[in-house]
Amino acid sequence: MKKTGKCPKCGCADVIADAKAVDRGDESFEHDMKIATFGNPGALIFKQKKETSMSAWVCASCGFVELYADEPWRINT
After folding, report:
1. How far apart are CA 64 and CA 66, in angstroms?
2. Could you give the angle at the alpha carbon of 67 between the alpha carbons of 19 and 65, nearest 5°?
3. Position 8 in a domain
4. pLDDT tens digit string along 5-43?
5. What is the DSSP code (8-state) at residue 27?
6. d(C-alpha 55, C-alpha 65), whole Å
7. Closest alpha carbon to 36 in 44, 23, 47, 25
8. pLDDT of residue 77
C-alpha cells in the first residue's frame, strides 16, 4: 500500500496513510507501538535492544492493515 497507494487485498485506492499504531501498557497508558531486535538475545541483561515505533497504512474499504517501521535502520542488527 505504501508504494502503490492501493490495497493489495481488494485493490481500493482509498488508503489511510501513516496512521500511528498505538499500544496500551500498564494501567492503560497509551504509547506508540514498537518493534524491537536484540543484538545479544541470549544475555541475561544488556541484550542490546534496538527499537523503533511503527505506523499503519489502512484500506478504508476492506480494513486491511500493513505496519511499517518508522525508522527501520534503528533495528538493523
Report:
1. 7
2. 75
3. no
4. 999 999 999 999 999 989 887 777 888 899 999 988 888
5. G
6. 10
7. 47
8. 64
